[in-house]
From TrEMBL:
NCBIfam families per record: transpos_IS3
InterPro entries assigned: HTH-like_dom, Integrase_cat-core, RNaseH-like_sf, RNaseH_sf, Transpos_IS3, Transposase_IS3/IS150/IS904
Function: Involved in the transposition of the insertion sequence.
GO terms for MF: nucleic acid binding
Species of provenance: Nocardiopsis mwathae
Domain of life per record: Bacteria
Protein name in UniProt: Transposase InsO family protein
SUPFAM superfamilies given in the database record: Ribonuclease H-like
Amino acid sequence: MCGVLREGSPVSDRYEFIESVRFDDTAEYAFPVTFMCDRVGVSKSGYYEWRNRPKSATAERRDRLMLLIRKAFDDSDGTYGHRRVHAQLQRWDVQAGPELVRLLMRQMGLEPCQPRPDRASLTEQEEAAPIPDLVRRDFTAPEPGMKLVGDITYVPTWEGWLYLATVIDCCTKEVVGYAMGDNYRTPLIKRAVEHAERAGRIQQGAIFHSDRGSNYTSAQFGEFLKGKGIRRSVGRTGICFDNALAESFFGVLKNERVNRVVYPTRGRARRDIIRYIEFWYNRKRLHSALGCNTPAEMYAAHQEMRLAA
């Protein structure tokens, strides 16, 4: 069956799940109503009673839901799928099952933008000096500022490439530092780390993890991190999964913003990316790995716990 129904879901959610499967023209299989009711633990008569309620009440509820679904979708600039739209509705104290949200979004023709796997590598394939992998694909941390990841990507403009270096906190998934320029030499990645440091987002002895790009593995960058009391960590050559958190952010940035606009100048691209990071990604975008909270909310929660301790 398409969709997900969690154990202990309300009866109305189970009815909505059956309804969505019945009218899902993308479903691979078709199941009898009796079979589905038995599988999700409701009665067939109860389902039809729910389905045949006075149309005015059902229609009015769905009309209100569709307005709120449209708002959540538009507020995300067309990037939210049904799970994040459902999470946003919950934050607004709107009761609706995820299957109903999915069904209504399909009926409204609301499809989130899809990623384009077209990122070229900025990583040198030559063997670098021996640097340990202190992360080993564990992109979590008990508190902010302890474990950070970084990477570089590029953004096309009519003036040429704009290179973006980022620093992301593994605890909050927040972009805590970034820098942009017309090249990706070592000073660019140093500026990104300094940005995070000025914001007070790096603890003494923190880990900074990256891929084996020539700049990240350079002696100059190593001395820079050592001087700040930061431990350097790198993944294996050419293995993108070893820096998956940084790669994931770039995928989201390009999918939700960069691939959808054209930048005449580097300055225009820089302003747009700053606005996306500061006002959307860090503060408003619901992050599935954070239980559909925002990075800013996670950071604030950790600060409250620290002050209370």
